[in-house]
Design a protein that fits this description.
Blueprint (H helix, E strand, L loop, with lengths): L1 E3 L16 E5 L10 H13 L3 E7 L8 H18 L5 E7 L5 H10 L2 E7 L4 H13 L4 E4 L17 H16 L21 H13 L3 H9 L17 H15 L3 H4 L12 H5 L5 H9 L26 H22 L12 H9 L11 H5 L6 H13 L4 H13 L4 H15 L6 H9 L23 H7 L3 H8 L2
Parallel strand pairs: 1-6, 2-3, 2-5, 3-4, 5-6
Helix pairs in contact: 2-7, 5-12, 11-12, 12-18, 15-16, 15-20, 16-17, 17-18
Length: 492
C-alpha cells in the first residue's frame, strides 16, 4: 500500500500499465465532489488510457452494525446510483451485500483484472484493517489517498499529544494546504475510455445492488432482512445524502454560525453545526465547509490575513470571533484525532492514554461508587440522573448528543461503572452503536478526552476521577440553559 500525499497531482506510472481499468474503492469518503482520492483515480485513468470503475459497498456484518448506520450509508449510495447509473465514461458498482463475504469476493474479482486499486486512507475502524490486509495480499499496485481534512496526515511525523501541539503545526501549514484544494467536480476531467467488459458475475452483482437502492422502500426492506444487524437501533430522521449535508451546511452558516461562539454550549438554542454525520461518511468535505464559512467573514477579510499565533486558539484566522471558534473545532480538534490515530496503533485502547491519566485512574479504580449501572441500564437511559438520561435518550432517538452534554455524558459513565476500563468499554459500545458519527477518529478523541487524552491533570484530586477533569450534572444545570432540552428528552 502506498499512502499518497493528497496534494500530489503528478501521476507516475512505471513501465507499461497492465490491467483493463482503474479501480477506485470508495470506502469512507463517499462523495463525488472535493475528493482527492477520486481526483487521483481520474488522473491515473487518463494517464494510462483505461476506463474508471468506482466501487461502493456495504458489508452486512461490520463491527457495531445497525440498521441505523446501514440505512444512512445506503441512502447515500442510492444518491450516487441516481447520478451514475447511466454514465458513459465511468462504471459505478454499488453492492450492499446480503451474505457475508460476497462483497469481499467482489473486491478481489475486480482487483484481478484492474491495473491499480485506489482507495481512501483512514486511520481507524475496519478501513485501517482492510487496507493493511490488502497491502499484503494484492499483486497489483495499491494506493490510498487522504481526503479526510485540510492538513494531510502525512505531514505529521508523530501523534500530537494535545490540540495545542497540532494547532501550532496547522497554523504553519494551513495556507499552503488551503491553496492546493481538491477539485470540485473531478469526474468532469475524466476522458472517455469506454466502459470495461466485466464478467457476468460482477455485472449481476451490480444489477442486484442497483435494484436494492432503487427506492427508499427497497432500502428499508433490505435492511430489515439483514439478521446480522442490531435492528433494535433503528434509522433516524436525517438522511445520508449529500443533498441533506448541503442543506444542513446552508442552515448552519445562514442561521447559527455568527452566534456559534456565544451559544454553542446552550442545548436549548442548538447553535452547533450538526455536520458530523456527513463529515464522518465523507458526504461533504471539510474543504467546502471551511470555504462556506470563510464566505461569512466580514467584508474585506482575506485568506492573506491569517498569521500564525504560536498555537493560540484565537487570532490566527481573524475576522469574526464565532467563525474563528468554529474553525478551531472543525480543523484543529477534528484533525488532531486523525493525526493522533494515524501514529497510534492502540488509539482505542486504555494503554494509549497519557501516563499521568493511567496512573491516577489506576490509583482510584477501587474507590467507592455511589451508583453502579450495567451496560443495559445505561443504554436504556435508566439512571437516577435526568440530565444524563436526556443525553442518552437524544443519542437513542437522533444518533447524536449535544456537544457540551456529550462531555458530561462520558464523565458520568466513568463515575458509574466498576472501573475505568469498564467505563471505556461501555462508552465505545454506546457511541459506536448509537451515534451516527461513531467509529470515527473524532469520536474516539471525544471518548478518550473523558479519561485525560488531550487534557492535563486537574486539582483538587477527587474520588474516582483522581486528577481527571471533573464534571457534574448539577453544575451543568447552573451553567447552561437546558429546560426545553430536558422537557424534550427526559419528560421533565
Amino acid at each position: 500500500m502506498k499512502n499518497i500525499n493528497s496534494h500530489r497531482k503528478n501521476i507516475r506510472v512505471k513501465g507499461e500499465a497492465n490491467g483493463e481499468y482503474v479501480l477506485y474503492w470508495m470506502q469512507i469518503n463517499r462523495r463525488l465532489q472535493y475528493n482527492f482520492a477520486l481526483e487521483y483515480a481520474v488522473a491515473y485513468a487518463n494517464r494510462i488510457g483505461r476506463p474508471l470503475v468506482i466501487l461502493e459497498g456495504l458489508a452486512c456484518d461490520y463491527p457495531w452494525a445497525t440498521s441505523r448506520t446501514s440505512t444512512f450509508i445506503l441512502e447515500g449510495m442510492a444518491e450516487h446510483a441516481g447520478h451514475l447509473r447511466d454514465a458513459v465514461s465511468v462504471l459505478y458498482i454499488p453492492y450492499p451485500e446480503q451474505k457475508s463475504g460476497s462483497f469481499d469476493k467482489l473486491v478481489r474479482d475486480l482487483c484481478s483484472r484492474a491495473a491499480i486499486l485506489i482507495s481512501d486512507e483512514y486511520p481507524v475502524f475496519i478501513m485501517r484493517e482492510r487496507n493493511e490486509k490488502l497491502e499484503k495480499e494484492l499483486k497489483i499496485p495499491f494506493h490510498t489517498i487522504d481526503s479526510n481534512g485540510i492538513i494531510p496526515m502525512a505531514l505529521s511525523d508523530k501523534a500530537p499529544y494535545s490540540a495545542y501541539v497540532f494547532r501550532r503545526m496547522m497554523q504553519k501549514m494551513f495556507r499552503e494546504c488551503w491553496e492546493h484544494p481538491p477539485q470540485q467536480h473531478p469526474l468532469k476531467g475524466l476522458q472517455n475510455h469506454g466502459l470495461p467488459d466485466l464478467q457476468n458475475e460482477v455485472m449481476d452483482k451490480r444489477k442486484t445492488g442497483l435494484d436494492r437502492l432503487e427506492s427508499s422502500r427497497n432500502i428499508e426492506d433490505f435492511v430489515n432482512g439483514l439478521s446480522s444487524l442490531n435492528n433494535g437501533i433503528g434509522s433516524i430522521e436525517i438522511k445520508g445524502t449529500r443533498k441533506a449535508a448541503l442543506e444542513r451546511l446552508d442552515a448552519f452558516t445562514g442561521n447559527d454560525l455568527l452566534r456559534y461562539d456565544d451559544d454553542r454550549n446552550d442545548p436549548d438554542k442548538e447553535r452547533t453545526s450538526r455536520l458530523s454525520p456527513w463529515l464522518h461518511f465523507g458526504k461533504i468535505s471539510a474543504f467546502e465547509v471551511v470555504k462556506e464559512v470563510f464566505a461569512m467573514q466580514p467584508k474585506g477579510w482575506d485568506i492573506g490575513d491569517t498569521r500564525p499565533v504560536n498555537g493560540k486558539r484565537s487570532g490566527f484566522f481573524g475576522g469574526h470571533a464565532s467563525i474563528e471558534s468554529f474553525l478551531d473545532e472543525i480543523i484543529t480538534w477534528r484533525e488532531t484525532g486523525f493525526h493522533f490515530a494515524l501514529h497510534t496503533s492502540e488509539y482505542d485502547q486504555f494503554d494509549s492514554l497519557p501516563s499521568w491519566a493511567r496512573e491516577t485512574l489506576s490509583e482510584h479504580s477501587y474507590d467507592r461508587r455511589e451508583h453502579v449501572y450495567s451496560y443495559e441500564e445505561l443504554a436504556e437511559a435508566g439512571t437516577h440522573d435526568p440530565v444524563w438520561n436526556a443525553a442518552q435518550m437524544q443519542l437513542r432517538e437522533e444518533g447524536r448528543i449535544h456537544n457540551y452534554l456529550r462531555m458530561l455524558w462520558g464523565k458520568k459513565v466513568l463515575e458509574w461503572t466498576p472501573d475505568p476500563q469498564t467505563a471505556l468499554e461501555y462508552l465505545i459500545d454506546l457511541n459506536n452503536y448509537y451515534a451516527i458519527d461513531g467509529r470515527d477518529p473524532n469520536s474516539y478523541s471525544g471518548i478518550f478526552w473523558i479519561f485525560g487524552r488531550f487534557d492535563r491533570a486537574w486539582g483538587p484530586e477527587r474520588q474516582i476521577y483522581g486528577k481527571i477533569r471533573y464534571m457534574s450534572s448539577d453544575s451543568a444545570r447552573k451553567k447552561i440553559k437546558m429546560e426545553n432540552y430536558l422537557k424534550r428528552y427526559s419528560g421533565l
